[in-house]
Design goal:
The structure holds two protein chains of two kinds.
Chain A lengths: L1 H31 L7 H17 L12 H6 L6 H5 L7 H141 L10 E8 L5 E8 L4 H14 L8 H7 L2 E6 L7
Antiparallel strand pairs in A: 1-2, 1-3
Helix pairs in contact in A: 5-6
Chain B lengths: L1 H21 L3 E4 L7 E5 L14 H12 L2 E3 L17 H6 L4 E9 L5 E9 L4 E10 L4 H17 L8 E9 L6 E9 L6 E6 L3 E6 L5 E6 L6 E6 L5 E5 L5 E6 L5 E6 L6 E6 L5 E3 L7 E6 L5 E6 L6 E6 L6 E2 L7 E6 L5 E8 L2 E8 L4 E4 L7 E5 L5 E8 L2 E8 L5 E3 L6 E7 L6
Parallel strand pairs in B: 2-3, 2-4
Antiparallel strand pairs in B: 4-5, 5-6, 7-8, 7-30, 8-9, 10-11, 11-12, 12-13, 14-15, 15-16, 16-17, 18-19, 19-20, 20-21, 22-23, 23-24, 24-25, 26-27, 27-28, 28-29
Helix pairs in contact in B: 2-4
The chains are: A mainly alpha, B mainly beta.
């Protein structure tokens, strides 16, 4: 009976537990995910960046020079008109010869101009190349110098870092040494202090012993005085024979009773009350004026024993 | 490190030792010379509407002061007159050095009854010890006040109070010719108030004694001209003669179970102790000596009887079993010891002892045979213990007249009962009232 009830319960419990564990894990995952990285502003920015990168990608970055080439290509373009000129219908020889001459001259001039232009272009290209080379060399030299300077700077920095590191290590070592020294000194101080206080305590104990021996007379005298005054005030109740109780009394300066507490009851409420009444009735108790001497008496323990009285 | 440890240990040891030394002062108190508990009895609220002699604070104050255990502080010293618990400031009473404080109220109810309530406090502790209230007929007011005094007495001393018990005594008034008197057997409360006359006679009445439950009295009356022993019901006044033998019929005493009467008869020539069975009227003689044997008194357990006998010359106290066996002399102190009666716990006797021609009430401890004189008066008679054993009531002579006086044990208190007129003799203290 109990098994059959326990089993479904266990299964349900296990299921609940599994669900709970999953929930906890999920909660953990959710909570531990760094939400800060999924910043929408960042996503937008990066998209922008990607588009830019795509556009820049296919352009050959280091070749801006062939820019002057197009004029070269443009130059042969006027050539086609020559065949066009040479294909007239030509009605006469002279005209034709003249025209041929004219065309020859024109072709010659054109060729000359072309050559001239070619040379000019060549020279220009040469000069340009030269200038380029010169610039390249200059840049190279500059880069070299720069690299040299950077290396030097690097070297300088490295040196500086090393120096700083060394200084730090030295400082650390110094600190460590100081600490050790301080610890050692503190330990020594402690030992000395303990030794001193032990010595002092011993001295004090000895002094107290001596004082007590001296004060014993005083204490005994006040004990006797207090006993007399409390006895005088105590009304022993009848039928208390054999009863006794212990009272702890706190006195204040002047002998007034601060508190009187039954520590061990006699078992009789009447007897205990008579004892407390005796202490309060006897107050102010005769006590020494000096607080030190009063402290010898405080707290005061009274043991009241019922006198063998008249108990008919 | 080791040295360090030893230093630490030494330090700890010295600390412990010095703390022990500081707690060493112990004072042993084995004797108490205090006499009375100081108590503040605040006049009850509403008590001024009553005559002074039934005002609660007056009656309770007189009861407690008379017991010898209390010193009620004068009310004009009180800093406050509280009637309710909320009005009590304990420091007021600590200043007065009162151990206990009693407050209360009394008022008439619409139906003519009286409502009276009280609270008793422990001043040192600042706590109520007890508190009760009663609604009674006005005639019962004094009884309730005595009851409150009983409660205060018992709460503080641990001993049952006797303020609601009664005393029986005989008064003698000179009447007619010189030497002629009117005798009255009277009953009053323990303080001598509420006197009621039980029997009136022109012939002597002597030695009344209470029955164990305080309902009947037995006494000797010379009504017929000769002494005879009677038993009389206190409440109804109905009386019967139980012994009127030839010669002396005297000193009757009920046995603790109330079925027997010990008495002294001289029908055989000498006064001897007999025991009379009150149911069968069978008489049994216990003493057979040719001397005076008289004044029998039963021990509380009923097993023993003490009596006075002069068989050794002067009167001394003897003891025997209730069957008259094992007679032995108890008192050897002095030449005259007579009229014994047991204390309620059976450990003491009170008796009259003569010292230097003076007759004193005294107590005798059976365990160690010590005799202690209680009074300094000179013609004490018929001492009788209070039912709580704390007081002895006796008859003595003050100012030429016989009066009743009581002394609390250990000389705590001594008082004369305020009974007026004539001579008052033969007191007998009743047992506790049994409800």
């Amino acid at each position: 009976m109990s098994d059959s009830t326990r089993e479904p319960l266990g299964r349900v419990g296990a299921t609940l537990f599994a669900i709970a564990v999953h929930l906890v894990l999920l909660a953990f995952l959710v909570l531990s995910f760094r939400w800060s990285r999924v910043d929408t502003s960042y996503v937008l920015k990066s998209q922008d960046h990607v588009i830019q990168a795509f556009m820049v990608g296919p352009r050959p970055a280091p070749r801006p020079h062939p820019v002057p080439a197009p004029p070269q290509k443009v130059a042969p373009e006027p050539a086609p008109p020559t065949p066009k000129v040479s294909v007239p219908k030509g009605p006469s020889q002279a005209v034709l010869a003249r025209a041929r001459q004219k065309a020859l001259e024109a072709a010659h001039a054109k060729a000359q101009a072309l050559a001239q232009a070619k040379a000019q272009a060549k020279a220009q290209a040469k000069a340009q190349a030269k200038a380029q080379a010169k610039a390249k060399a200059k840049a190279k030299a500059k880069a070299f110098a720069k690299a040299k300077a950077v290396a030097a700077a690097k070297k300088k920095v490295a040196l500086k870092v090393a120096a700083r590191k060394a200084a730090q290590a030295a400082h650390l070592a110094k600190l460590k040494a100081e600490e050790q020294k301080a610890v050692a000194q503190a330990r020594a101080n402690l030992a000395r202090h303990i030794a001193q206080s032990a010595e002092r305590a011993q001295k004090r104990l000895a002094a107290a012993k001596a004082a007590r021996l001296a004060a014993k007379g005083i204490v005994d005298r006040y004990k006797a005085l207090i006993e007399a005054s409390v006895s005088a005030a105590w009304v022993p109740v009848p039928g208390a024979q054999g009863l006794h109780c212990t009272v702890l009394v706190q006195l204040i300066a002047g002998g007034q009773v601060l508190s009187a507490r039954i520590v061990t009851s006699s078992g009789s409420a009447v007897f205990d009350r008579s004892v407390i009444a005796a202490i309060y009735s006897a107050a102010p108790l005769p006590v020494p004026r000096s607080p030190t001497q009063l402290s010898y008496l405080n707290p005061l323990t009274f043991v009241f024993t019922a006198p063998k009285g008249f108990a008919p | 490190m080791n040295r360090l440890g030893s230093y630490v240990r030494l330090l700890a040891l010295t600390t412990v030792l010095s703390s022990f030394a500081a707690r060493a002062v112990t004072i042993h108190i084995n004797q108490g010379y205090g006499q009375k508990f100081p108590i503040a009895i605040v006049p009850f609220g509403g008590e001024k509407a009553w005559p002074a002699d039934v005002r609660p604070s007056h009656v309770i104050r007189r009861d407690l002061n008379g017991s010898g255990w209390f010193d009620s502080l004068p009310s004009h010293d009180y800093l406050a007159q509280p009637h309710r618990a909320a009005q009590v400031q304990f420091n007021d009473w600590r200043l007065l050095k009162a151990t206990n404080l009693l407050i209360g109220r009394v008022r008439r109810m619409p139906g003519g009854q009286v409502h009276i309530g009280f609270r008793l406090y422990d001043v040192n502790k600042g706590a109520q010890l007890t508190g009760l209230q009663y609604t009674v007929a006005p005639t019962q007011l004094r009884a309730v006040e005595n009851k409150i005094a009983d409660i205060v007495y018992e709460t503080v001393t641990g001993v049952r109070g006797v303020f609601n018990t009664r005393i029986a005594f005989v008064t003698m008034y000179p009447r007619g010719a010189p030497g002629h008197y009117l005798y009255q057997l009277q009953v009053a409360d323990a303080e001598g108030h509420g006197v009621r006359v039980i029997l009136r006679s022109y012939e002597p009445i002597i030695s009344p004694r209470w029955s164990p439950h305080g309902r009947r009295l037995t006494y000797v009356s010379f009504d017929t001209g000769w002494p005879a022993v009677y038993i009389q019901d206190v409440a109804t006044g109905q009386r019967s003669q139980v012994a009127a033998f030839h010669g002396l019929n005297s000193a009757p005493a009920f046995s603790p179970d109330g079925t027997h009467l010990a008495l002294c008869l001289s029908k055989g020539g000498y006064p001897e102790i007999y025991v009379l069975n009150l149911l069968t009227r069978h008489l049994r003689q216990l003493t057979f000596s040719p001397n005076i044997n008289t004044e029998p008194s039963w021990s509380p357990g009923g097993g023993h009887i003490v009596f006075t006998s002069n068989r050794s010359g002067g009167p001394q106290i003897y003891e025997m079993t209730a069957q008259g066996r094992s007679k032995q002399r108890l008192t050897f102190d002095g030449h005259y010891n007579a009229d014994p009666s047991f204390s309620p716990n059976g450990k003491w006797l009170t008796l009259v002892s003569r010292r230097g021609g003076q007759y004193h009430a005294a107590v005798f401890e059976l365990a160690d045979s010590t005799l202690e004189i209680l009074t300094d008066t000179s013609l004490d008679e018929s001492p009788t213990f209070a039912p709580n054993g704390q007081e002895v009531l006796y008859s003595t002579v003050v100012g030429g007249h016989r009066v009743l006086a009581s002394v609390s044990l250990n000389g705590r208190g001594h008082r004369t009962l305020g009974l007026r007129g004539g001579d008052i003799t033969d007191p007998a203290w009743s047992p506790f009232r049994h409800p």
